[in-house]
Specification:
It contains 1 helix and 7 strands; from the N terminus they run βββββββα. The chain has one domain. With 90 residues, it is mainly beta. A hairpin with a 2-residue loop joins strand 1 and strand 2. The chain is globular. Strands 3-6-7 form a 3-stranded antiparallel beta sheet, with helices on one face. A two-stranded antiparallel ribbon has the order 1-2. The chain has a two-stranded antiparallel ribbon with strand order 4-5. The model has no long low-confidence stretch (mean pLDDT 90).
Protein backbone atom coordinates (compact mmCIF):
# COMPACT_ATOMS: atom_id res chain seq x y z
CA UNK A 1 0.00 0.00 0.00
CA UNK A 2 1.46 3.34 -0.97
CA UNK A 3 1.59 6.35 1.28
CA UNK A 4 -0.87 9.08 0.35
CA UNK A 5 0.93 12.18 1.59
CA UNK A 6 3.50 13.63 3.95
CA UNK A 7 2.41 16.23 6.47
CA UNK A 8 4.77 18.55 8.30
CA UNK A 9 3.35 20.48 11.23
CA UNK A 10 -0.14 19.65 9.97
CA UNK A 11 0.46 20.91 6.42
CA UNK A 12 0.67 18.68 3.36
CA UNK A 13 3.86 18.77 1.31
CA UNK A 14 3.26 19.60 -2.38
CA UNK A 15 6.28 19.38 -4.66
CA UNK A 16 6.86 22.59 -6.64
CA UNK A 17 8.13 20.54 -9.59
CA UNK A 18 5.64 17.66 -10.03
CA UNK A 19 2.91 18.29 -7.40
CA UNK A 20 3.76 14.98 -5.72
CA UNK A 21 3.05 14.96 -2.00
CA UNK A 22 5.27 12.33 -0.37
CA UNK A 23 8.72 13.14 1.02
CA UNK A 24 11.42 10.52 1.27
CA UNK A 25 14.60 10.46 3.31
CA UNK A 26 17.75 9.54 1.36
CA UNK A 27 20.60 8.14 3.43
CA UNK A 28 24.15 7.01 2.65
CA UNK A 29 26.37 4.37 4.27
CA UNK A 30 23.37 2.29 5.40
CA UNK A 31 23.22 -1.39 6.22
CA UNK A 32 19.82 -2.81 5.30
CA UNK A 33 18.54 -6.31 5.92
CA UNK A 34 15.30 -7.84 4.70
CA UNK A 35 13.48 -11.11 5.05
CA UNK A 36 12.68 -12.56 1.64
CA UNK A 37 8.99 -13.37 1.29
CA UNK A 38 8.97 -14.90 -2.18
CA UNK A 39 10.87 -15.05 -5.46
CA UNK A 40 8.68 -15.67 -8.52
CA UNK A 41 11.35 -15.18 -11.18
CA UNK A 42 14.86 -13.72 -11.36
CA UNK A 43 14.98 -10.17 -9.96
CA UNK A 44 11.31 -10.32 -8.86
CA UNK A 45 11.76 -10.53 -5.11
CA UNK A 46 9.22 -9.53 -2.46
CA UNK A 47 10.50 -8.59 0.98
CA UNK A 48 9.02 -8.28 4.47
CA UNK A 49 10.43 -7.08 7.78
CA UNK A 50 13.03 -4.67 6.44
CA UNK A 51 15.41 -3.11 8.97
CA UNK A 52 18.03 -0.41 8.53
CA UNK A 53 21.06 0.28 10.71
CA UNK A 54 23.48 3.19 10.72
CA UNK A 55 23.77 5.65 7.91
CA UNK A 56 23.96 9.37 7.37
CA UNK A 57 21.11 11.56 6.24
CA UNK A 58 21.93 13.02 2.82
CA UNK A 59 18.71 14.79 1.82
CA UNK A 60 14.93 14.95 1.91
CA UNK A 61 13.34 14.82 -1.54
CA UNK A 62 10.07 14.32 -3.39
CA UNK A 63 9.40 10.61 -3.74
CA UNK A 64 7.79 11.03 -7.16
CA UNK A 65 10.33 13.14 -9.06
CA UNK A 66 13.41 13.38 -6.82
CA UNK A 67 13.18 17.17 -6.35
CA UNK A 68 15.52 17.95 -3.44
CA UNK A 69 13.69 19.83 -0.70
CA UNK A 70 16.49 20.01 1.89
CA UNK A 71 20.10 18.81 1.70
CA UNK A 72 21.78 17.85 4.95
CA UNK A 73 25.00 19.71 4.17
CA UNK A 74 23.03 22.96 3.75
CA UNK A 75 21.17 22.77 7.07
CA UNK A 76 22.41 21.75 10.51
CA UNK A 77 18.94 20.33 11.32
CA UNK A 78 17.01 19.11 8.28
CA UNK A 79 13.83 18.51 10.25
CA UNK A 80 13.86 21.96 11.83
CA UNK A 81 14.32 23.37 8.32
CA UNK A 82 11.29 21.39 7.10
CA UNK A 83 9.21 22.79 9.95
CA UNK A 84 10.25 26.34 8.96
CA UNK A 85 9.43 25.64 5.31
CA UNK A 86 6.01 24.22 6.20
CA UNK A 87 4.96 27.61 7.60
CA UNK A 88 4.98 28.89 4.00
CA UNK A 89 2.99 25.98 2.56
CA UNK A 90 -0.72 26.42 1.91
Amino acid sequence: MSQERTTVDGKTFICPKCKGNVLEEIMTDVVQSSSIDCIDKPHDVEYVDTSTDGGTLDRIQCMRCGFIVVEAYESPDVYEELLKMAKEWK
